[in-house]
């Protein structure tokens, strides 16, 4: 199968555990589908759920969102999970070259399965539990007035995506010599940008540098 996402071989992430960790850590995704010949996308959280060997992404959109017309049973969709990213200056290399951008991202392709009734309520409850976990005073759905919760359920279209293919990239200066790699990681780690520091952390995981 052709790689729809452009990934130079040296940057392709193949480790499934790392990919699943990315999906869970960077769960606010861009859901893309095609409607009347045009791509349409929505920014939404998607929960990663494993059932045996099958991977699902669970989420919902507002009934007021026109993308609902493209999210029909069996439709093929793409969920994009952007990760940390950062500009890399050529001054950080041992030899002057063109600047570039380091980043991590995962594309998940799959088919839509619609959810209603109790399945949808359970999915929303699971999503609330997931994001409330770690809060100082976690909220449970049972604390939300029943009428309000049911009204909200009627206002959304719930679905899960049965994932058929994962494509992931981790472009982290793998093609640079150790000194350049160290310099890039150090400069990014000293950045005031949290995303750049996250890229540096990933680089340190993948190559033994001080």
UniProtKB/TrEMBL annotation:
UniProt cross-references to Gene3D superfamilies, sorted A to Z: Electron Transport, Fmn-binding Protein, Chain A
InterPro entries hit by this protein: Split_barrel_FMN-bd, TR_PAI2-type
Residue numbers spanned by region Disordered: 187-210
Family matches, as SUPFAM superfamilies: FMN-binding split barrel
One of the Pfam families matching this protein, by short name: FMN_bind_2
PANTHER family per UniProt: PROTEASE SYNTHASE AND SPORULATION PROTEIN PAI 2
UniProt-recorded name of the protein: PaiB family negative transcriptional regulator
Protein's organism: Dinghuibacter silviterrae
Native organism taxonomy: Bacteria, Pseudomonadati, Bacteroidota, Chitinophagia, Chitinophagales
């Amino acid at each position: 199968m052709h790689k729809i996402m452009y990934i130079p071989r040296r940057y392709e992430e193949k480790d499934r555990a790392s990919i699943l960790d990315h999906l869970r850590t960077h769960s606010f995704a861009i859901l893309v589908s095609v409607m009347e010949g045009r791509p349409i996308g929505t920014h939404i959280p998607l929960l990663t759920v494993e059932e045996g060997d099958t991977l699902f992404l669970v989420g919902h959109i507002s009934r007021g969102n026109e993308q609902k017309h493209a999210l029909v049973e069996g439709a093929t969709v793409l969920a994009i999970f952007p990760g940390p990213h950062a500009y890399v200056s050529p001054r950080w290399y041992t030899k002057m070259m063109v600047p570039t951008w380091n980043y991590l991202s995962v594309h998940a392709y799959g088919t839509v399965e619609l959810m209603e009734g109790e399945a949808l309520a359970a999915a929303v409850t699971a999503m609330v539990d997931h994001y409330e976990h770690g809060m100082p005073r976690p909220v449970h759905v049972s604390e939300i007035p029943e009428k309000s919760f049911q009204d909200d359920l009627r206002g959304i279209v719930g679905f899960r995506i049965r994932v058929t293919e994962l494509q992931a990239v981790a472009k982290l200066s793998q093609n640079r010599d150790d000194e350049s790699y160290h310099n890039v990681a150090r400069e990014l780690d000293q950045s005031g940008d949290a995303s750049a520091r996250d890229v540096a952390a990933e680089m340190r995981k993948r190559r033994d540098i001080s």
